[in-house]
Amino acid sequence: MIDKPFETFSDLFTKVQIQKLNKLAIHNLFDLILYLPNRYEDRTRIFLIKDVSVGQSYQVQGQIKHVDVKYFPRKNLIVTIEDQSSALQMRFINFYPNQVKQFREGEWVRVFGELKQGSLFKEFIHPDYEIVNPDEALEQNFKPIYSLVSGIRQKTLATLIQKGIRYIKENNLFEEFFPELIKQKKFPPFIDAVDKLHCPPKPKEGEVIEETITSFRQRFIYDELLSNQLFFRGLYQARKLKQAPEIQFSLDLHNMVLKNIGFSLTKKQINAWHEIMDDLGKSIPMNRLLQGDVGSGKTVVASLAAFQAARSGYQVAFMAPTEILAEQHMSKLSSWLVGTSLRIELLTGSLSIKDKELLYKKIAAGEIDIVVGTHALFQEKVRFKSLAFYIIDEQHRFGVEQRLSLRRQNQVMGNLQAHQLMMSATPIPRTLSMSYFADMDISIINELPPGRQKISTRLFSAKKRNDLLKSIDHECSLGNQVYWVCPLIDESEKMQLETVINTHQKLQKYYQSHVVEIIHGKMKAKEKDKIMCDFKDGKINILVATSVIEVGVDVPNATLMVIENSERLGLSQLHQLRGRIGRGVKKSTCMLLFGDKLSDTAKKRLRIIYDHDDGFLIAEEDLKIRGPGEFLGLKQSGLPSLRIASLENDEAVLNEAKSDADKLLKIKHPSINSFLHCWLPNHEDIVNT
Ligand code: ADP
Ligand code: MG
């Protein structure tokens, strides 16, 4: 009941109220009660002005002494108030003439705000205030503060939420989903937790508000993480009941390919490969994430498995996020397959319609064993005859939702489902692999192939660009190649394009004797390709690029990378970019250029990337700074990011929720679906469509 649209309850809210709530993505009573306050304000007592200190928030009450409009040089309204202990002022920088009239000397005001140090007095800037009768009663409860959008006021929302909670209680609309579990854990009832989080009781003497509501928060955190675990563990266990083709292993083929590859695998590569082959040999569909830092050699591991699947008589799809990368894979895989009878083809968006049609036909007829390609691989028109295994490279470029939706499109042969392998160079921090990736098994390559040199990273103020230009000149004259990256920094592609083009022109002028070329997302695939080939072949000294080079491209002779505006990039992205160099035996350097005014977060980020080259550590830090929602791109996913639980702080609860979810799934508890329907309204679409 509680997750039915508001309209179901005709006596609850008006149309206008419902519209307002919809603006906050609140569509039913459950959404409404889940919309928790960000913080609380203590309006239950009044502080004496002599007792308040700068930097904190207080409620005070005083009598108006002066009302002045001063020029500073802009117009400011200054209202001085005084209580029995001392005085302070309220400052309004934007105000209406009416507001000035409202403040009359001798009147009493009750003010709430954060105290700042003004030039003479302590002051509140744009505080919340009310003209009062000095004896007016105080609030009994802490005031919840919600995040809002324009057109809705705190008070309106708080009132609607209170009304909703009352309505649920009066009509008994909420029942515990798993009452036995809750009782056993001695948790407070969910609806009490909701009540107390929206309208917390006054803290006891010596207690802060956070302590007062701890047990209620814990209940909420538990339920939220339980929903997350039921969803992802549910997917995990449902998969175990499905059937997949068993892949046979051919040692002959394996040895032949290894000869073509020409290097031997690292220990960690061999481990990962074994894990994958074990899965492929079973009749349960694999769903595995292969994660390993940039340059750790994931491609070869995935390819060895792909070849075995193809040798077993099935088809394999190998998908990369960009054409450049798909082509690079194509050329690598083809060279490794020399001498075998396996047939491999490339399918990208830039093929002519005729060539595409032909390819579709061959794929449908089973005349191709391995298809390498971009997104084009997963279009309706591509019908495999016997797809048994598909590989998705650079998974971090696709959000969680896209990851799950690829499985939806997963083509089934009869009742068989294909095995899936995803690769990611952005390591997934542990708490994330336990939550948003809990439907997958994970293999890790945490070792680089031998002979790699450590990349040295330097921070460079953009003002010193001229010094940099000289050292690049030197680098090029040694025969080394340079990436000059102007990354995507805001939504405006046009502006970004301008930056790249300008930079290219400037560098071209400066380096008359070097070949300076440009590559960016707006170029045709063919052009991009030509540039990338020329760069690989050493025909270009300096390549000015947008972040199209971020993923996968392999040019061992590139030893220097300059990244403009590095302070504005995310940590994982910087790490990915930097991973484009240091791929050969020569020493590589990454120069991070930064602008004038560095924010504290930006400084922190640059410090981390400067100090560390361990992708796992960098990803953990990135997760801390950005939070899981942004880290995973959950916004577009239909899966809400966590509202109250924090993966970092609530790991213990996450563990508990996991084992409880497994138990509930095991006994097929009848309330699982309705519980999930409340917490993750789109979950069925994500799983089924
Ligand atoms: P990533 O994990 O970033 O996708 P790649 O698969 O592109 O890394 O591998 C990076 C480079 O290292 C490639 O040129 C690849 O051929 C090479 N490589 C991979 N494994 C080994 C190995 N065991 N020994 C030497 N070179 C290797
Ligand atoms: Mg790769």
Short description:
With 689 residues, this protein is an alpha/beta fold.
Task: Note down, in words, how this protein is organized.
- With 689 residues, this protein is of the alpha/beta class.
- Among the domains are: 56-127, OB fold (Dihydrolipoamide Acetyltransferase, E2P) (Beta Barrel), CATH 2.40.50.140; 251-445, P-loop containing nucleotide triphosphate hydrolases (Rossmann fold), CATH 3.40.50.300; 456-612, Rossmann fold (3-Layer(aba) Sandwich).
- Helices cover 40% and strands 18% of the residues.
- The chain contains 24 helices and 21 strands.
- The strands form 4 sheets. It has a 7-stranded parallel β-sheet with strand order 11-12-10-13-14-9-15, with helices on both faces. A 6-stranded parallel β-sheet has the order 16-21-20-17-19-18, sandwiched between helices.
- The chain starts with 14 loop residues before the first helix and ends with a helix.
- The model has no long low-confidence stretch (mean pLDDT 87).
- The site of adenosine-5'-diphosphate (ADP) has 17 residues, from helix 11.
